[in-house]
Prior knowledge:
By secondary structure, the protein is α+β, with helices and mostly antiparallel strands. Among the domains are: about 1-65 and about 215-400, 2-Layer Sandwich (BirA Bifunctional Protein, domain 2); about 410-510, 3-Layer(aba) Sandwich (Rossmann fold), CATH 3.40.50. The protein has 18 helices and 23 strands.
Amino acid sequence: MTQDELFKVLVAHCKEYGFIFPSSEIYDGLSAVYDYGQMGVELKNNIKSYWWQAMTRLNENIVGIDSCVFMHPKTWVASGHVAAFNDPLIDNKDSKKRYRADVLIEEYLGKIEEKMNKEVEKGRKRFGESFDEEKFRETNPNILREKAKYDEVHNRYVAAEEANDLKEYKQIILDCNIVDPISGTANWTDVRQFNLMFSTQISNTGADDDKIYLRPETAQGIFINYLNVQKTGRMKVPFGIAQIGKAFRNEIVARQFIFRMREFEQMEMEFFCRPGTEMEWFEKWKENRMKWHKSLGMGDENYRFHDHEKLAHYANAATDIEFKFPFGFKELEGIHSRTDFDLGNHQKLSGRKIQYFEPETEESYVPYCVETSIGVDRMFLAVLSHSYKVEEVGNGETRVVLSIPAPIAPVKVAVLPLVRKDGLPELAQKVIDEIKYDFTYQYDEKDAIGRRYRRQDAIGTPFCVTVDYDSLRDSTVTVRDRDTMAQERVPISELRSLIDSKVNLANLLRKL
Ligand code: GAP
C-alpha cells in the first residue's frame, strides 16, 4: 500500500469504527470540520489527560486554567492577529477555486525537490555500495539544473514573503507556469490578504463595535489572565500556565483530514521567566516536549526538530516538533520563545501594569515567555496513523490492528463470554464488576471469539478477557494481548493488577 492509499484507508477506518465523522454528514458535511465519535472522544480525552498531567502534575510551578473562546476584541489587536494573521490568497478565474498563493509556490518547490530526490535514488541503484550522495548532488547535471531552478524561485519567494509583496507572489506563480489543478489554466486573479479569524457579534444591535472574534489560539486567554493567576496563586517566576481548548481559524487550504481544520483544539503552555533566561528555558522545554512524545513509543525516528530560520516579529527563537505523518514530516507542535511581546502589548493597550516584582532582586519587569503549543487533533492523527497496521496472521489471513499506546487506548479491556449460555455471561458480568471502576471496557457476546478479537483489534483494545467453562470451575480467565496475540490464564482476582500494569497513565508519566 502506498502512503496515499494508507491514508485513505485510515480515514475510512476512523469512520467505520466510530473515531471520526465528517461534521453534519447528513447534509453532505462541512469542509474541514470533523466530529469525534464514541471511540474518538475516549482517545482524545486520554491524549489531553496525558498532556495535562505531564504539565500540571509533574511540574509544581505549572497550573492550569480554562478561559473563554470569546475575549475582548482589543486582545487580538494587542496580539497582532487583527493586523497580521493573514494568508495570501489567489483565485483561479476558470475553476472559481481559491488557493493560498504561498502554498502553490511551496508545492511547486516541493515538486522540484521530489525530482532531485528521484534522481538521487536512481544514482543509488546504479552505483550500489559505492554511492556517495553528497558528491552525486554536487555533480549530477540533472540535479544541478533543478537545484538552480529551485534556488532562484526559493530566493524570490523568501524575499516576497519578507517584504509581504503580493504582486511578486503572483509574478512567481505566472513565471513558474503554476496552473490550477482543476481547470489546468493559469488564469489567476491578483493575490489578496485574507484574515483567518472568524468573527461574530456579541449583541444583536449590529453595530460595528459589537464585532467579536472566535479565538484563533488559546494562548491569549493565558496572557490576559497572567495577573489573576500570578496573584491569586502566589506564583513565583519562573512559572507556567497551561490550557486546553478550542481554537478557530478560517483555513482556506483545509486538507489532510484532521491535520488542518477550521475548528480544532490546542494544548498550550506559556512559561513565564526572567528576561535573559528565556533561551535556557527554551532549550529545556524543547527537550521536555520531545521526551513526552517519545515516551509514547511511536518510534524515535519519527520525530525531528525543525528550527525556524525566519522568526516571527515577536519571537527570538522558534522550533517545530515534526512527526512523520503518512504524507511526510509535518509540524505537530510549536515551541516559541515569545519574549515579552504579548504581556508587553496587553500592558500597553489595557493600561494595566502587567509586571512581576522579584523579591530577591527587588526588581520589577514584564516576564519573558516560552510557549509550547500542540494541536490535540494533530496528535490524534499522529497516534492513529502510526498505530494502524494490517498484519498477516497465518493461513493467508490478515487482521487490522490499532497498536495505540495502551495507556491512551480508548477501550482498555473487552470482556467476552465464550458462549451466551450456561452461566458464562453472568460470570463475565462479575468480571466487569471487578474492573469497571478502573478501566474503560466493552462487553461482547456476539459472533465467534475470533471475530470478536478482530473487532477489538480494530479499535486498539490492549486486552481481551475470555470467560469459558474452566472459569466456572477455577475462577481463571484467558487474557489475550493485542500486540502479541499471546494468551495466558490468569486468576480473576489478579486481573485488575495485570491490566493496570500496562494501561495506567502513570506508567507513561514515570518515564518523563
Ligand atoms: N499559540 C501559538 C500557535 O497557535 P500555531 O503554530 O499556529 O501556534 C500551534 O499552532 C499548533 O496548533 C500547531 O503545531 C498544530 O498542532 C495546531 N494547529 C494549528 N492550526 C491548526 C489547524 N488549522 N488544524 C489543526 N491543528 C492546528
